[in-house]
């Protein structure tokens, strides 16, 4: 089994992931070094190149570099992958994360295959599969020039759901997207392992996307792979607290971020229209 990430800039931000790999005796291959990175589609291009050089039956795991840590050894990861009985498994999140605003996102959300909530939707930051199958499918996506690989993959999945397996129970991957700020509620450490309280599983990979380094370090600091204390900037802390407030309400009401924000925007729009009508009537009465 092989583990890869893409890092074109040789950034020190990769150290957190590397530290977790060393702890679990996992050799990580860094691909794409020194090459351009115009958008996340480039990641898919470099992964396809790597997969093309592997035995088609080789099991390969890809993880994003700066916001991911490994939580288990390769034997456990490969065993859990094979238990899926599918050659390509993606991680999942609470967001229906598709670029382009409401009109681009709604058709994907509406047609999305049913899956366990709250982790219903694909996250493209971590995945695992057999090299040959992954290469062929990723080539069909034509995502190399896309600014968002996750958008392209989600759009493909709604039309071809049988071609991918999704880790709804976070057996292999756990992802905090859509639940930033809820780390203390969603996770706890038992006997040195991270437990996802929502799914009651012990995942092998932790991913905190959206530059949620505060949440990532909050979890990592409780594990054996902890590093130096993380010092967040003022603006980073402000954004984190704002996300926490909104996601806490979201989690209590609807375990679906898209539907929650759709309803919230609808309510705000109604209030806006009512306010305009009231203001117009008040102005008309003042003139009279």
Automatic annotation (TrEMBL):
Glycosyltransferase listed as a keyword: yes
Pfam families recorded: GT_PLOD
Gene Ontology molecular function, alphabetical: transferase activity
Residue stretches spanning the membrane: 258-279
Domain of life of the source: Bacteria
Keywords: Glycosyltransferase, Membrane, Transferase, Transmembrane, Transmembrane helix
Domain PLOD1-3-like GT intervals: 2-217
Family stated for the protein in its record: Belongs to the glycosyltransferase 25 family.
Protein known as: PLOD1-3-like GT domain-containing protein
Species: Stappia sediminis
